[in-house]
Each structure stands twice: as C-alpha cells, then as structure tokens.
Amino acid sequence: MLTVASFAEMALSFPGTEQTAHFGRIGFRVVGRRMFATYLPKDNTANVFLTPAEQAHFRQLDEANIYPVPNKWGQKGATTLVLSRITKEVVMEALLSAYNLVAKAGKA
Questions:
Q1: What is the distance between the terminal CA atoms of the chain, rounded to a whole angstrom?
Q2: Does residue 66 come out as left (phi exceeding 0), alpha (psi in the -120 to 50 range) or beta?
Q3: In what order do the strands lie in the sheet with 45-49?
C-alpha cells in the first residue's frame, strides 16, 4: 500500500516538480505550470490529470479503483486512484502520463 510519503517521493521524482497545498490536498506540479496530481491523506487517494483517452486506458486496468473524478474535471480526464488497492507500478505509470501532459504543454 502506498503512503503519503511514498506517493510524494514518486510524484517528486520527475524533473522540475514541487509539492504545494491545493484546496485541502497535497498538490504536485511542474514548476511554473499547473498541477499534474493531488493527494488526499484522509482516504489515501490521488487525483491525476490525464487526457480522456489515457483515463479510459487506466480504467480498463481496474474500474473499481481507477475512476473519473465525479464532476466536469473528470469528463476532461481528471482521474481518482485508490492507492490502497492498486499497484505502485500502475500509480507510477499514471503519474508519468500526467506529468508528461503538463510538462510538454506549450512546447513545440
């Protein structure tokens, strides 16, 4: 099971990332850009910001524990991960996808 410390270590392992508060969550962003993930300690879940196509891919792995955030952000690809029920490898793959989406935004 991933803990807040292990999730933070994974999210901060990408170049140019930082941890910050984000509306009652712990946020992870690319410096100078937007969030790519947030963590909610009270229920050990994370939200990662994916494309809708990436969200569909990850949902196929475990629809019960990987699902859209239940609002308009979820329709745009924001995805909840239940960290106590999915593997570290899947979490890392989702974080990498979210990080790449933000890090590469605006680059030619």
A1: 38
A2: beta
A3: 17-22, 25-30, 35-40, 45-49, 78-82, 66-68
The total number of structural domains in the chain stands at 1
Assigned domain for 108 exists: no
Q: How many residues does the chain have?
A: 108
| 106 pLDDT tier (thresholds 50, 70, 90) | low
Q: Which residue type, as a one-letter code, is found at position 36?
A: F
Does residue 69 form part of some domain? yes
Total-model pTM: 0.93
DSSP 8-state symbol, 38? E
Answer whether 37's CB lies under 8 Å from 19's CB. no
CA 6 to chain centre: 13
Question: CATH no. for residue 79?
Answer: 3.90.1150.30
